[in-house]
Amino acid sequence: MHIRMKIWRQESGQDTGKMLDYELADVNPDMSFLEMLDMLNEQLLEQGQRAIEFDHDCREGICGQCGMMINGRAHGPLKNTTTCQLHMRSFRDGDTIYIEPFRATAFPVKCDLKIDRSAFDRVIQAGGYISVNTGQAPEANSIPIGHPVAEAAFDAAACIGCGACVAVCKNSSAVLFTSAKVTHLVLLPQGEVEAQERVRHMVDQMDAEGFGHCSNTEACEAECPQQISVLHIARMNWEYNKAQLLKK
Amino acid sequence: MGQWKQKTLTRKNWMAFTGLFLCFFLVIHLLGNLQLMLPDEKAHLQFNAYSHLLSGNIIIKIISWVLYASIIAHVIYAVIITLTNKRSREVKYHYDKRGEVSKWYTRNMGLLGTIIFIFLVIHFRDFWYVYKFGSLPLDEQGHKDLYKLVVAVYSETWYVLVYVLCMVALCYHLLHGFFSAARTLGVYHPRYVQWIRVFGWIYSVGICAGFAWIPVYVHFLK
Ligand code: HEM
Ligand code: SF4
Ligand code: FES
């Protein structure tokens, strides 16, 4: 395949950045999108140009690092897929592909397609944990948890923190991410203890980072590689309202 | 962040409360308007008597103050929310196809709301203001003749056209708004979410079709 690309290039956080044109011949349709970018980078290095920086780690759809906007969609044209699991066969010979970083005020661009997602870390630090002393691994069956509850908590825990929900949201809202963690922990007896402080602190931090409001457009669920359900957002709203009403 | 600053979720709660109150009000308002569809003579006297009854009742007075407050608060929050959302993405996408994964009217509540707001201004000026502060002739029972005014206004074709288009905008606003308000307030059980979707759909189409039908009917048949 012959592929044309328009890629966002930005030297650093201070630089303004712009879209530049690239071309790549002999692309194998079975390459992953990231392999195609690797190939382009080799070509650039041979020509003595600076390689395009992008985040990636596992390349098997579980780490959530490889976020980028491809043809105006988070992680490209497929729903519920990470960039590393997108293959060139999803494009046609001669296509022009637009590649940009995820955009949100809370996710400043560091270089080219690489963004700073530490706002998510600070939201988790604000309450996405349980306060217990760790020691010996506890006996697994000492706290009985029904299978459906364990499954529901696990569905919420599946979020990989990729940021696609924020990138696709017209308001750059982080509620899908935050609500996944809130719901994951509130469903379990260990997490219930701190449920009220948790949801208040995490929502406060989410706001402080500069994420927007949720308009319930549900674009986030459509793009989320883990198919985190928007019902978690409703659950977080419920927990938040409860916590505000019962606040001492 | 200052303590005075409201949380995003709190603002959305107010948006939902005020929006749902407006939804409730629309039902009462539509039931009242349906009296216009009665046979000519009956509609004339009954509609005027009903309007007179409303303007004297203390409970209706309270409801109307809550109504004015709700409209104002809903619009103010709409503006605050929209401005905050704008700030949350300073650099836009060059190539943007995100619209493929959500419905257009869920992304354009502000635009639909603005159309409704303009409609409300016209609506208040033509009926509410004239009834409250203008000088209307009295009907044979001695009530202000709002009925005659309504029939006169709806005899204008362009007015009926604008009215119907605004009801289409309202319909889309409600189609998303009703459901969105339930989510904002925290309805998370899948079964009830499904019920609310269906009910919201019936409610939105029913209300807006009802409101849109009245001026069309009055225009052609009165
Ligand atoms: C009869 C009039 C109206 C009714 C019944 C109504 C109802 C609603 C409801 C129920 C919601 C959902 C709240 C939520 O998402 O939690 C909503 C949202 C909204 N309304 Fe209205 N509304 C009306 C008029 C207006 C007007 C006049 C404006 C603006 C000038 C407006 C702007 C908005 C906006 C921007 C949202 C979305 C907020 C968001 O994105 O989260 N609405 N409305
Ligand atoms: S909720 Fe989904 S889209 Fe958002 S960060 Fe988690 S995995 Fe990514
Ligand atoms: S590189 Fe880990 S999810 Fe794509």
TrEMBL record, chain A:
Q: Which Pfam families match?
A: Fer2_3, Fer4_8
Report the superkingdom from the record: Bacteria
> Cofactors per UniProt?
[2Fe-2S] cluster; [3Fe-4S] cluster
Boundaries of each 4Fe-4S ferredoxin-type domain copy? Answer: 150-180
InterPro entries per UniProt: 2Fe-2S_ferredoxin-like_sf, 2Fe2S_fd_BS, 4Fe4S_Fe-S-bd, Beta-grasp_dom_sf, Helical_ferredxn, SDH/FRD_Iron-Sulfur, Succ_DH/fum_Rdtase_N
Similarity comment: family membership: Belongs to the succinate dehydrogenase/fumarate reductase iron-sulfur protein family.
Q: What is this protein called?
A: Succinate dehydrogenase/fumarate reductase iron-sulfur subunit
* Source organism per UniProt: Chitinophaga qingshengii
Automatic annotation (TrEMBL), chain B:
Q: Please name the InterPro entries in this protein's record.
A: Cytochrome_b-558 (IPR011138), SQR/QFR_C/D (IPR034804)
TM helices/strands, residue ranges: 14-38, 58-83, 104-124, 158-179, 200-220
Q: Which domain of life, per UniProt?
A: Bacteria
Q: Is Membrane given among the entry's keywords? A: yes
Q: Which CDD domains match?
A: SQR_TypeB_2_TM
Which Gene3D superfamilies does the protein's record reference? Fumarate reductase/succinate dehydrogenase, transmembrane subunit
What keywords is this UniProt entry annotated with? Membrane, Transmembrane, Transmembrane helix
Extract the NCBIfam families matched here: sdhC_b558_fam (TIGR02046)
Q: Could you tell me what this protein is called?
A: Succinate dehydrogenase cytochrome b subunit
Which organism encodes this protein?
Chitinophaga qingshengii
